[in-house]
Write a structure and sequence with these properties.
Rossmann fold; 18% strand; Arc Repressor Mutant, subunit A; six-stranded mixed sheet; globular; six-stranded antiparallel sheet; alpha+beta; 17 strands
């Protein structure tokens, strides 16, 4: 575990695993803890993967409690793990209560109920000593900021030749190590919590730095380099229009399967990918046919170019039918990204993840 990420002035922190929670729901829970927990606003929260060893508490979205995957997961949990739940509908509230699970309705905002619910969450004591397997960052080393589209471009330009590990950090202690050679990214936060690219500052690690030796990766999350690039660009508020050629045509080279479980940009990426799957289109035609604004289309083009999932092509004026709301992906998958309700989308993505986690 990263030595500094859980420490605060009281030397206590909270570790919480989650299943099915959205980013905004986690933020609500963090606010609840800051306002109502007995340790107050100095409390530091870390979100864990549901399969992390030695869990103390897990919070599950109530609408998932009745699924076979979650039922199996709960049956396999040790008896000393505290199971909590949240909901925003009374039906889900009643079902969780029937299972003897302590649940809070986040739409009610009842201070007494919130305080009673929050104070069941246990705290951890920070370990003061550091093992030799933790990364020690030399704070005198200069960090480079990513406050413009050009600075992002300059960072990605390093990727083709860089042999050392890239280290990135945010002011919220979100840490990232990028192994360019292995195309792997190691994070101290879950994928769903990956911030925008401009949130980071970065430096190149010393040539003798090796992941697995200077840092302990057992408690880190791992994603592919392509996936991380796509996520941080789609989270960004920067304008990438100036980094792409508005006069070129673009054709899909690989379908972006990894975006199907992302919290942002999923529907837009699938639709834009479908538009250029068979017929190359220019930036302007993508704007017209997708009816998305320039920021979304430029994010799509730039992120997909960086990871080589689209390629430049000659313009072809062949018409594409936009009558169907179904997008047929590679390997026969079908995604109804426009008519699908938000709850159905969240549940389907979550269940797919759970099947992979528990081997179904």
């Amino acid at each position: 575990m990263i030595a500094s990420e859980n420490k605060n002035i009281n030397g206590v922190f909270i570790e919480i695993a989650s299943l099915g929670l959205l980013a905004y729901e986690k933020s609500i829970i963090e606010d609840y803890i800051a306002q109502y927990h007995s340790f107050g606003s100095e409390q530091n929260v870390k979100w864990l993967h549901a399969r992390t060893d030695n869990l103390k508490v897990i919070i599950i979205r109530a609408s998932f409690l009745g699924t076979s995957e979650v039922t199996k997961y709960l049956n396999d949990l040790p008896n000393d793990v505290l199971v909590l739940s949240i909901c925003n509908k009374k039906d889900d509230l009643d079902y969780a209560i029937s299972l003897n699970i302590n649940i809070i309705n986040i739409s009610e905002n009842d201070p007494q109920k919130i305080q009673a619910w929050v104070n069941t969450i246990p705290v951890n004591k920070a370990v003061p000593s550091l093992s030799t397997n933790h990364l020690i960052i030399d704070q005198s080393n200069k960090f480079n900021t990513l406050n413009s589209a050009e600075s992002v471009r300059d960072l990605f330009a390093l990727f083709s030749d860089l042999k050392s590990i890239l280290y990135l950090r945010t002011n919220k202690a979100e840490l990232v190590w990028i192994d360019i050679i292995e195309s792997k990214v190691y994070l101290n936060t879950e994928k769903i919590l990956i911030p925008s690219i401009e949130s980071y500052e970065w430096q190149i690690s010393p040539p003798d730095f090796e992941i697995g030796k200077q840092i302990n990766i057992d408690n880190l999350y791992k994603v592919s380099l392509n996936e991380w690039i796509w996520e941080v660009i789609w989270e960004s508020n920067l304008d990438f229009t100036q980094l792409i050629s508005v006069n070129s045509a673009y054709k899909l080279a690989h379908w972006p399967h990894f975006c199907q479980h992302s919290k942002i940009g999923r529907a837009e990426s699938l639709r834009l990918s479908a538009l250029i799957k068979k017929t190359p289109l220019s930036y302007r035609k993508l704007l017209a046919r997708s009816v998305y604004d320039k920021f979304i289309v430029s994010k799509f083009i730039y992120s997909m170019l960086i990871i080589n999932f689209i390629k430049l092509s000659s313009v072809n004026d062949e018409k594409i039918s936009l009558n169907s709301t179904k997008i047929t992906a590679l390997e026969g998958d079908v995604f109804d990204v426009f008519n699908e309700s938000k709850d159905q989308s969240i549940k389907r993505n979550f269940l797919n993840k759970m099947r992979k986690i528990i081997g179904l």
